[in-house]
């Protein structure tokens, strides 16, 4: 299995206390990562957002399903939970992620919310490229 802790420590030092807790799983880390994303969205911190979404997408793209599935259920499933940030969140979501997480959103949300998210995602175009994905 890929060492997500080493990668997370290097990329997200502000969450080092979570990474260093060996008893905590990547699910806990990804939940904390989402909290960091919320702060970065509210502060307009694009550098932090690039690191956060870059790490989540790296997890998503791992060939081993454990880390990929963890990113879906512990990060991406919740990206629209703070509804007032929906316009800021949508541009950060790759289509491959949306395709996989949308069934979870369908299960959790009323039709009106899902329709609004679909509209936002259609309008947002390709995801924001992150330095992380370019090999930070």
From TrEMBL:
InterPro entries found in the cross-reference section: DUF7674
Boundaries of every DUF7674 domain copy: 11-96
Pfam families in alphabetical order: DUF7674
Name this polypeptide is given: DUF7674 domain-containing protein
Organism ancestry: Bacteria, Bacillati, Actinomycetota, Actinomycetes, Pseudonocardiales
